[in-house]
Fold this protein.
Amino acid sequence: MVTPVLRVEGLTRSFGGFRAVSSLTFHVDPREIVGLVGPNGAGKTTTFNLITGFLRPTAGRVWFQGREVTGCPPHRLARLGLVRTFQQTRVFSRLTVEENIRLALHRHEPGGLRRTLWGPAPGEAAALERRVDEILEFAGLQEARRRRAEELPYGEQRILGVAMALAVDPVLLLLDEPLAGMNATEAEAAIQLVRAIRDRGVTVLIIDHHMETLMRHCDRLVVLHHGEKLAEGPPEAIRRHPEVVRVYLGEEAAV
Amino acid sequence: MRRAVDVVTILQFGVNGLFVATGYALVALGLTLIFGVLHVADFAQGALYMLGAYVSFYATQAGGVGYFAAVALAMATGAVLAALNGGVVYLPLQRHGGSLTFVAALGVLLILQNAALWWFGGDFRLVPSPFGDGKFSAGGVVLTHHQAFVLGATGCLVLLLWAGLRYTKPGKALRAMAQQPEAARLVGIDIQRVGLLAFAVAGGLAGGAGALMAPVRAFDPHIGAVVILKSFAIVIFGGMGSVPGAIVGAAVVALAETFTAAYLAAEFADLVAFGLMIVALFARPQGLLGRLPT
Amino acid sequence: MPGAWVGLALLGALVAPVLLRSPSHQNLLVLTAINVILVASLDMLIGLSGLVSLGHAAFWGIGAYTSALLVMRAGVPFLVALPAAGLAAAAAGLVIGYPSLRLRGHYFVLVTFIFGIIVTLLLTSWVELTRGPMGLPGIPFATLPWVGGTEVVLNTFQDKVRYYYLVLVVALLTLWVRSRIMGSRMGRALVAVREDEDLGQTLGVDTHRYKMGVFVLSTAQAGLAGSLYAHYSTFLAPETFDYVASFDLFVMNLVGGAGTPLGPVVGPVLLTAVRDALRSTHPVLGAVLFGVFLILSIQFLPRGVVGVWDHLRGRRRW
């Protein structure tokens, strides 16, 4: 049996008396695309914040590639290869697309006092430039590379956010509603990008409201409701799961 | 300078300390109110305290206005100037967000303080109290009539503020903004108007505090900076945005510095207030009675 | 900013004492150069990293008193006291920065502001050490070792030009370090801190470490400026380093153009003379003007005078 990329056990977080996430247990295997779904307020983003070190769990543990990382700060997790995106579009809006990617390559750029004062060693700058080019091409953002991020259309800003996460070279990518606010074409392009990322060997955990899209593209789904796991399994099983059908009956009809 | 350590002396210092606390408390309340709504530390409130003192001085000495009317006039002046300052300087700065507004507020304080030096000169002033030298005495502990009046007036103002925040519609909007800004925005509370209201109320309290303290504490244009820094220490110590925190904080800081000045050395009195503030910032960043932003 | 402008500014700085021969003008040159060190170091916090410090003058003061007292009381040579001043200020920066840079929001500006007030209070009330409000007179001139074991005494009452060049060397070093950092990996990490710290962390940037680094470096440079000031004026008083001084440095930074390559030069060059002239003739007007400058530049010139210049020339950068 392979070691799961991510394993979460008994994860719990309360705010005051309110349990936003309650005894949540699930795992993500290598090269899977797993969807974390549930109605608003089900605790999806809180779960992300707990996994990525933005919040401390009240109880429970998190393992990443077999190594316990509970309570690890976000930048350390990013270095280990656990990288997230944010629900709202988060890019450095006043910087150009290129500068955004360049910044995201922080982890791959050698540092040190000598380089700060005298500049990078020969070849290092060119190597980084190549990486920038490669990522821009992969994300389809070459045209926009010299534009300020805030000038991009909404959909492209989101893609830039994903491209930046990709630049960190993640093992596991956590995408928080990457499709929110996109029209059908933009959403399709974005989900194709996610699949391409997976095909590069990256494991993906994704939150979204586009139930249908996730059903089509995820290998497995974890359904949250009131902070607890309601169901887990491949899309077909989830679709027929009695509890899920009961909870989603109203919403499903609306989608 | 060793002081006697007997009950009467200690009680007397306690009374004096509480009295000092009232002046700070009114300014600190205004600060905490503005901070709660707009997240601005409005240092200019200190200048309004100073201007309130000068208004009461010139109104009673040159204008022939009675002291109590002068206090009301000082409150009105403070309220108008604070609202003006809020509307012209801070609200347009909100889009820059963050820490720059702190620096801008400091700028406004320095401008007003120096403008006052220009117009009023640097002499120390004192306003004659309408109560003369009358004092209460109980077992050797002395409270002047004016001190009693200030304590009473402060109590009334705090009560009024509390009732206003609790029972009036604008007051409720103010509390909503401070406690649940997102929700307040959703139900359509106008941040600008509520913000201006907070400024006006705070300015009124600061101006009033200046006039109330003017017969007891000699002042010059620099008093504004002294008072605001103390009040600021109090607000941080008590918890930014917390109304009870401002009152408790004022009492703690004023008592601490009164006793330090009495039993250690006067020079250390100021250090105590700011020391408490630093300790509070590091040990409990949300303050004594404040809550951490979520 | 193209290299031609930098070259021109450098040339101007080098020939300035030759063109300005009166002692009062040369005095302004030295003070301007000291302010360039202070504003350039402050700008690494404000302009580059978005960390608003309202206590920069306090670190300057720590450096000044450390250097003066080491030379006066311990007989330490100037060339040892100068780095010691930088180290003392940096140590204070470390102690203040470590906890306050961990917290988000307004804590950093609050802590630096309060720290500034506490330093002024300490300098005023620790009379045995600093002579308090009476000020510390008779600080020895800087001495530099020279060939053949002789020493050069930089008597700034008789000759300000040599001292000006000493300060200029430190100022140029400060500017050079700043510009190197701005183009480096550390500079990009600090831009991430300024623009969106959470996002920076998810990209693997250890933001606290970089904030600490830049703060300690910046306070160390302020400490060096303090030493240079102490042995120039030979007299120190607590109010030189109070929160109003921090505020004035802030204004110079903003008016010059925070985060712009030449802003930390333009601000002090424009405002040091103004501040000095007004301080002796009309201090009240001076304070009012600085306040007005600040509010106007926050409102209307987010990138200061340098920004206006760029705008007029049709250039724009982040």
Summary: The mean pLDDT of chain B is 82.
